[in-house]
């Protein structure tokens, strides 16, 4: 990591306040103790056990909207940067019409890896993870562990797509004369997951770019609280003039009153800025010194996070549970199918409620009540009670059809956590309902529960265990959303019934 940060500084990356404070004779600015590194004034690398690994922490108190990291264009790994080699570029151009921009970037990454220490990006490449938990890496056993047909279908599609894209790109990789180990599907999965989970948007290439150091930020899900906070901050700063950030000459800190209004209007936490010829990152909120600084990649469900980034959130305000619906429900309104879902807190989406209300209304009355339904009003108490009873029963039936219960999944998830955190935990574990699935996992890897030891497991089995754990966590969250919907419907039925009486 130290070598990476030194290389990054050499490439022009910096977390210094912008513009940097101007030294004067009366108040000279003391040089940073980490001046040979790109971090140290605003951010530093730290380990966050609750977040699953390393990330970036605040080296001082930060203000929302403050510029916290600049990565110049020359340090970004893009298809363009790889094409600087004329021989490489001429070979790539012969295949360019058959491959997507993302496939091109994946091939460029593998070609750069082959250069080893001769690569300009070697200090960055050696810091990349050796494996990923994105859906394309899931085995059949792990995919089936989702239990829910929608998640299984998405997973199988991700695996099939990865294999198809690899086959399409093999010809180019052979023409580039890459080493045999870099031509394998396993290497393609690694490079593809690197691109999927770590690229950032740039205006000149839809494939995006790999951003050294900038990809150390961990994810923060957008939620209503952050939206309100952004809105409040915008109101606070509307009267301020647009000016560059001013910094304390002694501390180098940024004051709230000096933030330009433009910072509060950003839709993301960073982006490529032509005027600075750099990818710039901004604090999404106020941070105290030592607190982990997070980056909002966008709004994702847990399944989408797993597909593209290889992790799930225990509490994801943007999660959704899609359930099987009758064709008549889906066609009863103009809402698209992907808007009919149950929210993370168990409340049906607005669109789902509209569709159910219209579905439960006789065909000849739907046009009459349509405006009322689309404005969010109920049709009648009887109509609302009817759809709540139907939805509660439907969710209950779905939960009953799944192989395991919420309680069993909770125990299994806890057991797997203990296996990873405390390798010898199984020796004292009693036989529980979830143990049959645990036994299936060990048998799938040629192991037995009696001698199971996480540290002693083959690397392949350990990585599989981590992916399996993610599948269990996903299905547990899915079931809790359905259970939450049942509670929501039952409570609403009670309220409506008492009011109607």
Automatic annotation (TrEMBL):
PROSITE patterns for the chain: SET
Q: List the keywords (alphabetical).
A: Methyltransferase, S-adenosyl-L-methionine, Transferase
Please give the Pfam families that the UniProt record associates with this protein: Rubis-subs-bind (PF09273), SET (PF00856)
Per UniProt, residues of the SET domain are 35-298
Record GO terms (molecular function): protein-lysine N-methyltransferase activity
- Which GO annotations describe the biological process of this protein? methylation
Q: Which parts of the chain are coiled coil?
A: none
Give the matching InterPro entries.
Answer: Rubisco_LSMT_subst-bd, Rubisco_LSMT_subst-bd_sf, SET_dom, SET_dom_sf, SETD3_SETD6_MTase
Going by the entry's taxonomy, the superkingdom of the source organism is recorded as Eukaryota
Protein name as annotated: (wild Malaysian banana) hypothetical protein
């Amino acid at each position: 990591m130290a070598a990476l940060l030194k290389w990054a500084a050499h490439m022009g990356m910096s977390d210094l306040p912008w513009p940097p404070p101007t030294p004067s004779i009366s108040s000279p600015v003391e040089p940073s103790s980490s001046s040979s590194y790109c971090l140290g004034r605003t951010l530093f690398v730290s380990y966050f056990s609750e977040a699953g690994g390393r990330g970036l922490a605040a080296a001082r108190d930060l203000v929302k909207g403050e510029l916290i990291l600049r990565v110049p264009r020359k340090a970004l790994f893009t298809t363009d940067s790889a094409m600087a080699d004329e021989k490489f570029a001429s070979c790539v151009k012969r295949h360019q019409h058959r491959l997507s921009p993302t496939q091109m970037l994946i091939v460029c990454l593998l070609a750069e890896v082959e250069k080893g220490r001769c690569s300009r990006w070697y200090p960055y490449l050696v810091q990349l993870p050796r494996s990923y938990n994105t859906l394309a890496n899931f085995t059949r056993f792990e995919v089936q562990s989702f239990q829910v047909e929608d998640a299984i279908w998405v997973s199988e599609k991700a695996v099939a797509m990865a294999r198809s894209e690899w086959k399409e790109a093999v010809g180019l990789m052979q023409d580039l004369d890459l080493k045999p180990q870099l031509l394998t599907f396993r290497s393609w999965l690694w490079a593809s997951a690197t691109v999927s989970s770590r690229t950032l948007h740039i205006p000149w290439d839809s494939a995006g770019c790999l951003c050294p150091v900038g990809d150390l930020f961990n994810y923060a899900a957008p939620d209503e609280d952050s939206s309100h906070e952004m809105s409040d901050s915008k109101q606070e700063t509307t009267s301020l003039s647009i000016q560059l950030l001013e910094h304390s000459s002694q501390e180098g800190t940024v004051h709230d009153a000096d933030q330009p209004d433009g910072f509060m209007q950003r839709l993301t936490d960073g982006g490529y800025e032509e005027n600075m010829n750099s990818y710039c990152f901004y604090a999404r909120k106020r941070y105290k010194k030592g607190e982990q600084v997070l980056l909002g990649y966008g709004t994702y469900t847990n399944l989408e996070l797993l597909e593209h980034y290889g992790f799930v959130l225990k509490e994801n305000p943007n999660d959704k549970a899609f359930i099987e619906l009758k064709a008549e429900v889906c066609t009863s309104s103009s809402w698209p199918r992907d808007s009919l879902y149950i929210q993370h807190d168990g409340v049906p989406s607005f669109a789902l409620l509209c569709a159910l209300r219209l579905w439960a209304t006789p065909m000849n009355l739907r046009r009459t009540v349509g405006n009322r339904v689309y404005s969010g009003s109920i049709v009648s108490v009887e109509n609302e009670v009817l759809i709540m009873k139907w939805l509660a029963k439907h969710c209950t039936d779905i939960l009953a059809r799944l192989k395991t219960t919420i309680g069993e999944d909770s125990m299994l998830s806890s057991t797997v956590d203990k296996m990873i955190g405390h390798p010898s935990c199984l020796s004292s574990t009693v036989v529980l309902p979830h143990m049959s699935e645990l036994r299936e996992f060990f048998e799938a890897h040629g192991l037995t529960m009696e001698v199971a030891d996480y540290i002693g497991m083959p690397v392949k089995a350990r990585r599989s265990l981590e992916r399996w754990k993610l599948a269990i966590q996903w299905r547990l969250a899915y079931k809790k959303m359905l259970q939450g919907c049942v509670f929501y419907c039952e409570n609403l039925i009670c309220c409506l019934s008492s009011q109607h009486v």
